[in-house]
């Protein structure tokens, strides 16, 4: 009879925490929302990746606005990300879906973020410093 204490099958032992637990949905969404505080990352999303032209991505960003309200907003370390989230959603509200299923009317968004982003970040830092 095998000894339960010497089990080397690699199966997780009931009652013991997993060595590498997967992040929760809360953690994944918090990390993504806070990544929006990084203007270089937002610029990358809008210039290198085409997901931002997807109606699904538009809906996802709109869904993430719940982070702007307590108790979720109290978990935010980089509040600038909420400004960028609302800014992106504001631009995407006017976008329409074309016959290919992609959003139209957002062609200037990457350029605006690239040019204005650093200035917005500096203004927000000044606001938080006061």
Automatic annotation (TrEMBL):
<feature type="region of interest" description="Disordered">
    <location>
        <begin position="1"/>
        <end position="20"/>
    </location>
</feature>
<feature type="compositionally biased region" description="Polar residues">
    <location>
        <begin position="1"/>
        <end position="11"/>
    </location>
</feature>
<keyword id="KW-0804">Transcription</keyword>
<comment type="subunit">
    <text>Component of the Mediator complex.</text>
</comment>
<keyword id="KW-0539">Nucleus</keyword>
<dbReference type="GO" id="GO:0006355">
    <property type="term" value="P:regulation of DNA-templated transcription"/>
</dbReference>
<dbReference type="GO" id="GO:0016592">
    <property type="term" value="C:mediator complex"/>
</dbReference>
<dbReference type="GO" id="GO:0003712">
    <property type="term" value="F:transcription coregulator activity"/>
</dbReference>
<dbReference type="InterPro" id="IPR038089">
    <property type="entry name" value="Med31_sf"/>
</dbReference>
<comment type="similarity">
    <text>Belongs to the Mediator complex subunit 31 family.</text>
</comment>
<comment type="function">
    <text>Component of the Mediator complex, a coactivator involved in the regulated transcription of nearly all RNA polymerase II-dependent genes. Mediator functions as a bridge to convey information from gene-specific regulatory proteins to the basal RNA polymerase II transcription machinery. Mediator is recruited to promoters by direct interactions with regulatory proteins and serves as a scaffold for the assembly of a functional preinitiation complex with RNA polymerase II and the general transcription factors.</text>
</comment>
<dbReference type="Pfam" id="PF05669">
    <property type="entry name" value="Med31"/>
</dbReference>
<keyword id="KW-0805">Transcription regulation</keyword>
<keyword id="KW-0010">Activator</keyword>
<protein>
    <recommendedName>
        <fullName>Mediator of RNA polymerase II transcription subunit 31</fullName>
    </recommendedName>
</protein>
<dbReference type="InterPro" id="IPR008831">
    <property type="entry name" value="Mediator_Med31"/>
</dbReference>
């Amino acid at each position: 009879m095998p000894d339960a204490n010497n089990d080397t099958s690699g199966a997780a032992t009931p009652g013991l925490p997993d060595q590498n637990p997967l992040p929760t949905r809360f953690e994944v969404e918090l990390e993504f929302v806070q990544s929006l505080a990084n203007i270089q990352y937002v610029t990358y999303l809008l210039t290198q990746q085409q997901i931002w032209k997807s109606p699904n991505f538009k809906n996802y960003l709109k869904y993430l606005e719940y982070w702007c309200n307590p108790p979720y907003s109290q978990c935010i370390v980089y509040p600038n990300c909420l400004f960028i989230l609302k800014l992106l959603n504001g631009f995407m509200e006017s976008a329409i879906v074309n016959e290919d299923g992609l959003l139209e009317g957002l062609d200037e968004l990457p350029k605006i973020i690239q040019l204005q982003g650093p200035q917005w970040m500096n203004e927000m830092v000044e606001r938080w410093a006061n």
